[in-house]
Amino acid sequence: MAAILSNLRNTVIAGFVLALLLVIIYMSMGGTFGPAYWSFFFRWLHVLSGVMWIGLLWYFNFVQIPTMPAIPDEQKPAIGKHIAPKALFWFRWGAMSTIATGLILAMLNGYLVQVLTIGAVDGFAVRTHVLLGIGMWLGAIMWFNVWFIIWPNQQKALNIANKYPDLAADAKAKSARTAMLFSRTNTLLSIPMLFAMVSAQNI
């Protein structure tokens, strides 16, 4: 057991093996790989991706950003050079996977156009389409912020992969502030986004 839990790759593989075991149980009870299964499968991937994305978003905003001022200056490079770049990798690809699986899920369920128009094609008569549409567009705004504002500015602020070695200190500070403000924007939007997504399925 220690060999599994002491290595992250092995832990994740073991988690997927257990999930596969659940698929086998499902099949043994008469389950099939029909449209309902694939709708579920992409919803599961969508939730997994969203947990990674929003979990890291909240880590940055509830843990890393508020804690940085209390960290001694000589220790801060460890965060900027080692922890933040790795977290940003999973953060941005979690965002990409979340939006991709969400679009696939909407297509499989036959309501992609309805949610992209926030229910307008239904005359706003289908509450689920309106709520999912609001949630999807909030998520799309958040995804855009991650890929086209937060990530480019973090690359400058932290000189990730030594891409901006000669950037002036004031330019780095400006990029760091821009990334922080848009990260806070995404934290703000994540609350109504999750409300819209969950309420569409439950009320």
Strand content: under 5%
> Number of helix segments?
7
Integer average pLDDT: 96
Secondary-structure content class:
mainly alpha
**Total beta strand runs:** 0
Strand and helix layout:
Layout: H1 2-5, H2 8-28, H3 35-67, H4 76-108, H5 112-116, H6 127-158, H7 169-202
Helix pairs in contact: 3-4, 3-7, 4-6, 6-7
Report on this structure.
It is a single chain. The protein has 203 residues and is mainly α. It has two domains: 1-31, no CATH class; 33-202. 80% of the residues lie in helices and 0% in strands. The chain has seven helices and no strands. The chain has helices spanning 2-5, 8-28, 35-67, 76-108, 112-116, 127-158, 169-202. The relative contact order is 0.09.
Defining traits:
mainly alpha; 2 domains; 7 helices; 203 residues
Structure in a nutshell:
The chain has 203 residues and is mainly alpha-helical.
